[in-house]
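Cross-posting from the chemistry board since nobody answered there.

I work mostly on the small-molecule side, so proteins are not my area. We synthesized ISJ and want a rough idea of how it might sit in this target. Sequence and SMILES are below. Is it possible to get a predicted 3D structure of the two together?
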Amino acid sequence: MDAQTQAEHDSQAAALAELESIRQSIDNIDAALIHLLAERFKFTQSVGRLKATHGLPPADLDREARQIRRLRGLAEEAHLDPAFAEKFLNFIVAEVIHHHVKIAADTGVIDVVDVVDGEGDLQL
Ligand SMILES: C=C(O[C@@H]1C=C(C(=O)O)C=C[C@H]1O)C(=O)O
């Protein structure tokens, strides 16, 4: 192996070691996200049970609007795209609402046919 090929080989080996180290941190962050989401869904399930027991609607659009405003502000401060933060929250909230509708239906508080349209989408 000539000197230049050896240098390229060493440089690539160093890059792969750095990549592995960065990926370990990404893995740790992904694990933390999963644990945070699991905790969040535990709390939202409690909210769903509370709402179903007391006849409150599954979705609260005013609360969602306040959260979006707050998270967009936090995202801007953190140099994260606010549009992405909003999409991410909406994605999670949509799942929460499905859970709440199911809890309410299982509790007998709402009739599923009242909230699902012809295409199977929730109409809340
Ligand atoms: C969890 C709630 O229920 C719904 C889900 C929300 C969420 O996941 O943050 C926010 C508002 C509601 O549409 C709530 O009312 O607090």
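Reply from a structural biologist on the board:
Welcome over. Reading the output above for you: The longest helix spans residues 3-53. The radius of gyration is 23 Å. Happy to explain the token format if needed.
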